[in-house]
Design brief:
single chain; about 250 residues; alpha/beta; 4-stranded antiparallel β-sheet; 11 helices; 10 strands; globular
């Protein structure tokens, strides 16, 4: 269980609030989609969960304990984060996937690479999993780097999986294949996914809408389409939406 209680945060005193009065409870095993426009606070929300920063006001709890009570290593060993800007080391593909679990077997590495739909392009390299990638993965395409990052996260088998626009460099077909492959895995852990892809959002247990550093709506996809002006605004230029049901 993850809970934000009246959390507010700003990066420094001279800047406006990045998050303001955030209260949200995420139950264990839920898949939660986080949506909102640029600068709405989505990524800041996950940074506080990873304890890269501490709240200025309010509290973040994990399993009913204040997040400050956990050692950082212990906290982050329970969570894996996949971000849009993937960082890879100047190492082998195997070494990059095994980062965080250096004693992983070849069988484990191949299994997660297959789930991440990375196995085919890896095996096309002359040296396969022993192929050296350049600093930050410059020898790989954006989609290849993201699939390695997804494999790395799956290998860690975290209790909480955070995906911050992690499929942005993937084509829609590859993204769909990965989502179907890891669907069962997502059901066994808490997943927080920042995304704009409706195929992912529509299947989430809960959708949280951020705007201006605040949560302005929470609910399931279909319900939000009918009753949240802010949620509809994110998609109305791209899709034909059902009529808005105004509250009386």
């Amino acid at each position: 269980m993850i809970e934000f209680r009246d959390v507010s945060f700003k990066y420094n005193e001279d800047r406006p609030w990045s998050l303001r009065n955030i209260s949200l409870r995420i139950e264990a095993g839920q898949t939660v989609a986080i949506v909102g426009g640029p600068g709405s606070g989505k990524s800041t929300f996950t940074k506080l969960l990873l304890r890269l920063y501490d709240p200025v006001e309010g509290s973040v709890l994990v399993d009913d304990f204040m997040i400050s009570e956990y050692e950082n290593f212990g906290l982050r060993s329970r969570m894996a984060s996949i971000e849009q800007d993937v960082f890879l080391f100047s190492d082998t593909i195997r070494g990059n996937i095994a980062f965080g679990k250096s004693n992983a077997s070849d069988e484990e590495i191949r299994r997660v690479a297959k789930l991440a739909r990375a196995d085919k392009f890896i095996e096309e390299f002359t040296d396969g999993y022993e192929t050296i990638v350049g600093e930050r993965g410059v020898t790989l395409s954006g989609g290849q780097k993201q699939r390695i990052a997804i494999a790395r996260a799956l290998l860690m088998d975290p209790a909480v999986l955070i995906m911050d626009d992690a499929s942005s460099a993937l084509d829609s077909e590859t993204e769909y294949e990965i989502q179907q492959a890891i669907k069962q895995l997502l059901k066994t852990r808490t997943s927080i996914i920042i995304t704009h892809r409706l195929s992912i959002i529509a299947e989430a247990d809960k959708v949280v809408v951020f705007e201006g550093g605040e949560i302005v709506a929470v609910g399931r996809h279909q319900a939000l389409l009918k009753n949240s002006v802010q949620y509809r605004r994110l998609f109305e230029s791209l899709y034909e939406l059902p009529p808005l049901e105004m509250k009386t």
